[in-house]
């Protein structure tokens, strides 16, 4: 099932999703809380600020999508697929601060 959306703050909360492709969707601040996702792919989507808290993932592909500021807990990382360059966006979910080293003036 292929889905195309241009929505902000849409709620999919408590949904069960299986074998779904979201393609080029604008899902800013979307609510996926408590969803059960199996073989779901977000291709070229804008998921900025989307909440996945409490969701259960199995083969959920977030590659090629904007995942800045998504809400997800570290115990949910298992089951998602991301690009190495996207890992930086998930570090914030651990509570860690990512900072460049301080440089001293010479």
Task: Provide the succession of SSEs.
Answer: EEEEEEEH
Main structural class: mainly beta
Helical percentage: under 10%
Radius of gyration: 15 Å
How does this structure look, described?
By secondary structure, the protein is mainly β. The chain has one helix at residues 87-91; strands at residues 2-3, 6-8, 16-23, 26-28, 36-43, 56-61, 80-81. A 5-stranded parallel β-sheet has the order 1-3-5-6-7, with no helix packed on it. The chain is globular and about 55 Å long. The mean pLDDT is 87.
Short précis:
The chain is mainly β. The protein has one helix at residues 87-91; strands spanning 2-3, 6-8, 16-23, 26-28, 36-43, 56-61, 80-81. The strands form 2 sheets. It has a 5-stranded parallel beta sheet, with no helix packed on it. It has a two-stranded parallel sheet with strand order 2-4.
């Amino acid at each position: 099932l292929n889905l195309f959306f241009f929505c902000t703050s849409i709620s999919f909360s408590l949904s069960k999703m299986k074998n779904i492709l979201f393609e080029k969707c604008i899902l800013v601040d979307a609510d996926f809380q408590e969803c059960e996702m199996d073989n779901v792919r977000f291709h070229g989507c804008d998921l900025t600020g989307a909440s996945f808290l409490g969701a259960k993932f199995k083969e959920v592909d977030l590659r090629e999508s904007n995942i800045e500021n998504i809400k997800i807990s570290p115990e949910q990382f298992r089951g998602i697929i991301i690009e190495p360059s996207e890992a930086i966006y998930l570090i914030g979910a651990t509570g860690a601060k990512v900072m460049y080293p301080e440089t001293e003036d010479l």
